[in-house]
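Tutorial, part two.
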Amino acid sequence: MLPLFTDHPLICALVLILLDLLLWRLISASGSHWKLLVRVLIFSLFSAVLFNEGLNPMQTAPWPDNVALHLAATGLQIGWWLFAARTLTVLIGALMMQRVGHTGRLLQDLLGAVIFLIAVIAALAYVLDLPVKGVLATSGAVAIIVGLALQSTLSDVFSGIVLNTTKPYQLDDWISIDGTEGRVIDIDWRATRLQTAQGSMAVIPNSLAAKAKIINFSRPSDMFGISVSLQVSPHARPLTVIEALERAMQGCRHLLAQPAPSVALKSASSGGVEYEISGFVSAMAHKREARNVLFDLAFRHLQASGVSLLSSAEAETPTGLSRPRALLESSSIFSTLRQDEKDTFSQHMQLVTFRAGESVLPAGEVSDHLFIIESGVVSVTLERDGQPIEAGRMGPGEVIGEAGILSDSALPADFSAKTFCTLYRIDKAYLKPCLDARHDISEAIKSLLDYRLHTAQTLTQTVPQVVAKKGFMQWLRHRG
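Running the prediction step on this input gives:
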């Protein structure tokens, strides 16, 4: 077999080309450096075989009398130019991927097309000995015709170059192009592909993207804006609404403290007044949850302030109720009480207030009463590894002190007022017989206690530290 290749170097050159194609397919994408090394090595061997046989790609084949051998040599010389163009394209692509990453793929493709065009022209001029000037003149006329026919496509290509150069967005960025919002999953020579929040794919031509208004939600990378709009009655006092919405903002832990969230009056008319809460979260994944939590908190704090969201069909609610009686009406735990029971129950509720920063129920203290929050924000703090962490924030309608009522125990959490708070206190001496008589309310409070104990246990567990693996080179550096 070996003498066959040594005696027939043209066959050896053909085998090298086939071997390159085979190995390029077999070597996986993870071994890109190996693929590049193999291609350069095979191209070097291929060049050595051709030049050793006297086949110079800068000249025509040297056997004009032997038609079969002349055609084979000509084909291998043309193959050398194409092989050289492919190898150079792969080398340039590897360098560009290291420097600019995936966004340089469009420039890589265009540069590769130019290199192949030069290789084809060189093969025509040197190997086939054709008049290049005539070819270039003909190709120029053809290029004009093709350019006129492909105006929109060429516009997409050059717009893609501009987008890749200026980089208004990159892969995995969340952007909006002319109102189409989604995550960038691909940028090629013709279009930008977005994966929308509904899971569908939007294909936007680069020429349209280059002219459109682009909003990049991922810049800066640690801050994402959200906003919630609400409409209330025009008869509600603006100061009351704004204070309630500010408490709602402080109750949402997802909102960043800096830049500070804000409330603004957007529009007012005889039909209603629109307010907007705006703020920032630290991750795109938090936007939806933060909006949902913020809307729920706004609803509860507005309700606690006696303001309802504007609706075409207002809910039928009793009028003339006292504050504790209205609080029981909106409480999810005590909602199963009959109307007469709520009237009696509300008479045993005592109003207490706390200024911002005051302790409502210290950690470890067994409470002999139950608190129901009427308005304000209460912060819940736990200790993990000796350091305080905020576990949550509570708002109107939520209860505090259920552990002492049910089991004469205490929660490991510290409850303190984050804003000015008003709460209603119900003593255990009155509440305990009521819970014994109404097992549905007792079970609801017990489920709440179990949930809070489980949450506290989960949050206070010590996170195991991951020990970094020390390699041999690190050991040598430390020894030195």
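Residues 1-5 have pLDDT under 50 and may be disordered. In part three we will examine how such features are distributed along the chain.
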